[in-house]
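Sanity check record (used in CI):
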Amino acid sequence: MIGPDTAGIAERLGEAADTATAIAQLAAETGLDVDAAYGVQTALIQRRLERGERLVGLKMGLTSKAKMAQVGVDEVIWGRLTDTMRIPDGGTLDPTRFIHPRVEPEVAFLLDRLPEPGEPIGDFTDAVRAVAPAIEVIDSRYANFTFSLPDVIADNTSAAAFTIGPWSPVPDGLDNLGVLLEIDGRVAQVGSTAAILGDPRRALDEGIRLAGRHGVRLREGWVFLAGAATAAVPLRPGAHVRAVVEHLGTTSLRASA
Ligand code: OOG
Ligand code: MG
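Expected output for 4-oxalocrotonate decarboxylase:
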């Protein structure tokens, strides 16, 4: 049997992102399963690397029940981050570059040296140099922000942009810190880091394990987004967005009008 056309599907998704034009879901029609979908994601990232972007990290998706419920997919997924997705803390992004962008509050890790594949992480503070509040901008390339599990994996887990606040040394506990997402000074979402797999540190174990299945190793110096603690909120032109994580501080971005 001939498998799905990995390169062709990656091209369709890449074009959709480049032109900010939604496309129809494609996994069912092309027979894409989860493994093949990660293959498409790899090809999609390759396309970015070929035009000069650099891999700077990894992101987890659907590590909280709030997110799973919002998109109707209940499996933890992972995607890749490149340098052009990073917006300086407090920076401005043009929302018309995206289809239907949403923002969500996250916790970021700055990775230190990680163990060899198969070895346990051991002490979290050996693997992670620093932590920070983060905002992820997600933008599904599928119409109506609706997708199946393989669809969202192929689409690099809706990754679009992110900001990271000031890095802090790893605190003693990360498992029950209050999280706020504010839009224009008003609270839009409230949550806790406990929503992220019970403890965001667990997201790193999952990331190492799941990416490792596809031969991807996390690297020293990479950023790791552990996944949103709350549901995502639409990013409107002109909006000022701030994420606050208790003890870690804040990060913000603005959407140009
Ligand atoms: C998929 C990406 C989910 C998260 O933090 O849970 C994600 C989506 O919601 O479009 O980034
Ligand atoms: Mg996210």
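The chain has a mean pLDDT of 96. If this sentence no longer matches the regenerated tokens, the check is flagged for review.
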